[in-house]
UniProtKB/TrEMBL annotation:
<feature type="domain" description="HNH">
    <location>
        <begin position="163"/>
        <end position="219"/>
    </location>
</feature>
<keyword id="KW-0378">Hydrolase</keyword>
<dbReference type="Pfam" id="PF01844">
    <property type="entry name" value="HNH"/>
</dbReference>
<protein>
    <submittedName>
        <fullName>HNH endonuclease</fullName>
    </submittedName>
</protein>
<dbReference type="InterPro" id="IPR003615">
    <property type="entry name" value="HNH_nuc"/>
</dbReference>
<keyword id="KW-0255">Endonuclease</keyword>
<dbReference type="InterPro" id="IPR002711">
    <property type="entry name" value="HNH"/>
</dbReference>
<keyword id="KW-0540">Nuclease</keyword>
<dbReference type="GO" id="GO:0008270">
    <property type="term" value="F:zinc ion binding"/>
</dbReference>
<dbReference type="GO" id="GO:0004519">
    <property type="term" value="F:endonuclease activity"/>
</dbReference>
<dbReference type="GO" id="GO:0003676">
    <property type="term" value="F:nucleic acid binding"/>
</dbReference>
């Protein structure tokens, strides 16, 4: 975790993963605590002991998942006889979003943007190529579709695609062999509402074609992502 502090939302996907692994027996809150602790490795403030209690802030956050009915509210899990069980909606949520949270962290997206993109009602979410090996096949296929769509969308009639930062265009620099050499960057975590009629058209607004160098630069500083405006200004000021 970049900030060191784990939020209640951060617990959702790891909890669902724990429920997938314990599909038959379900998981009690005590077991969940241990499983999440092992996976998420809380540190700093999260390990601070609560006044007058034997446990720390992290345990409190896990307990709050239940007291706030965080998973039940979205229909992702049921709680019965002291144990959480995964619902079919929870299972499909994991298939759609599993691995994406890590991938978005690796891309440097801020917490709020991540939260915004990981909601059960979203049907499509996309990730950048090579940003995570943990995502499900469904996500990879959807991301690939978006990428292909974006490449067509950004290309001119001759197949040339220019970098939105510096204007680099493959075939101008290297000749025919580099026609269409470009990377598709996600300015924001891309998520599209399930009921949207044109999810790809909708998603394209959050994408930008960048040459490999500019793309490296916007992700160069760990934990943040440079905006296209900043990128252009950086180039202009150099
Ligand atoms: Zn560029
Ligand atoms: Zn990017």
């Amino acid at each position: 975790m970049a900030s060191g502090l784990i939020t209640e939302s951060d617990l959702v996907l790891p909890t669902l993963r724990a429920l997938v692994k314990n599909a038959d027996a379900g998981v009690s809150t005590t077991e969940l605590q241990l499983l999440l602790r092992e996976e998420m490795k809380p540190q700093g403030e999260d390990l601070a002991l609560l006044e007058g209690r034997g446990d720390d802030k992290f345990s409190q956050k896990v307990r709050n998942l239940k007291s706030h009915d965080r998973l039940e509210r979205d229909g992702l899990a049921d709680f019965a006889d002291g144990r959480y069980h995964l619902t079919p909606a929870g299972k499909s949520f994991i298939e759609k979003f599993g691995g994406i949270d890590e991938s978005y962290s690796a891309q440097g997206f801020p917490e709020n943007d991540k939260k915004e993109a990981l909601r059960p009602e979203f049907e499509y979410t996309f990730i950048e190529e090579g940003s995570s090996s943990h995502v499900s096949r469904t996500v990879r296929q959807r991301s690939k579709r978006l990428r292909e769509y974006a490449l067509k969308f950004f290309a001119d009639k001759d197949g040339r695609i220019s970098c939105e930062g510096c204007g680099f265009e493959g075939s101008t620099a290297y000749g025919k062999v580099a026609l269409g050499l470009i990377e598709i960057h996600h300015k924001k975590p891309v998520a599209v509402h399930g009921t949207s009629k044109k999810p790809l058209k909708e998603a394209i607004k959050d994408l930008s074609p960048l040459c490999p160098t500019c793309h490296r630069l916007v992700h160069f500083k760990k934990g943040t992502v440079m905006s296209i405006e900043e990128l252009k200004k950086t180039i202009a000021d150099a």
